[in-house]
Design a protein that fits this description.
The protein is mainly α and 240 residues long. It has ten helices and two strands, in the order ααααααααββαα. The relative contact order is 0.17.
Length: 240
Amino acid sequence: MPNRRFFTANQLKAIALFCMLLDHMWATIVPGREWMTCVGRIAFPIFAFELAQGYTHTHDLRAYAKRLLLLAVVSEVPFDMVAGGTYFYPWHQNVAWTLLAGLWACHCADRCRTAPTLPEKLPPLLGLLAALLLPGLLLTDYGTAGVVIILLFRLTRGGGWRSCLAQAVGLFVVSQYMLIGQVYPVGPFEVQQECFALLALPLIWLYNGQHGRKNKALQHAAYAFYPAHLLVLGMLFMAK
């Protein structure tokens, strides 16, 4: 039977970046087009999946964390321009902080699982608790829910229908009950707009396990896209 999975990690990342761009354009320069933010819900689950994959395959966790930390610091002012229309907006922090917390959560969860005794499990367990709580307390984008989504992809990485089912159920629960936003009536129920995130799963399930073209310039460009597009949109938004 031919392998029907054809998306590389690079292609998934490109899709996520495009969906994120639409969402941020809706939030700044083209308000009123609600379909753009609905499509934008696809971005974070792909980023969470790729981070869980990156954690699994990285040879240097410290370097990975440093890249995310640098991204978070560089992106904060552009994000504040988009989120608050100002250069300093302490009520909402950019999503790179959430990704960094998710990376730490994956590390702590693994250490907790492999520690042989209860006293040795305690430090990573406390680290995992901090990774879950701090994003919510610091008001990072997606907050605690984002870290939970990252852990979901880390814990369901085995593949197969059971993993797919767990991802679908887990992502629905997080989107419906942990994230608050626009709701849509569906019969007697109200469904959160965040549930459009489930549209990311078919794309993720088509991941073929390949990174795609390895190129430092492409890697740096993917990282730079986040603060760069926020800066452009932020300037346009503040100039209105």
